[in-house]
Amino acid sequence: MKYAHLEKNTNKLLGWYDKSIHSEIPTPNIEVDEKVWQEALSINANCYKDGEFIVKDFRTAEEIA
After folding, report:
1. pLDDT per residue over 5-45, tens digit each?
2. Would you tell me how many other CB atoms lie within 10 Å of the CB of residue 12?
3. Between vectors from CA 53 to CA 7 and to CA 11, what angle results, nearest 5°?
4. Distance between CA 53 and CA 49 in Å, rounded?
């Protein structure tokens, strides 16, 4: 199993962890299976929303301009 470390208020994906590699898994996190992890990687997901990993633009209006 893999763990997605998420930012508390935004659900921004901060990193991936695996207990077979990492001795500590930061919180908050969610546990995902290999298939979900692979799908998230394939789309370069950066956010978890409504039960799925998505790509979200976190830039502010000022940063976009």
Report:
1. 999 999 999 999 999 999 999 999 999 999 999 999 999 99
2. 14
3. 15
4. 6
Q: What is the DSSP string of the chain?
A: -EEEEE-TTT-BEEEEEETTT-S---SSEEEE-HHHHHHHHHTT--EEETTEEE------HHHH-
Give the pLDDT confidence score for residue 65 in this predicted structure.
Answer: 87
CA distances from 62 to 12, 41, 46, 56, 65 (A): 19, 28, 20, 16, 5
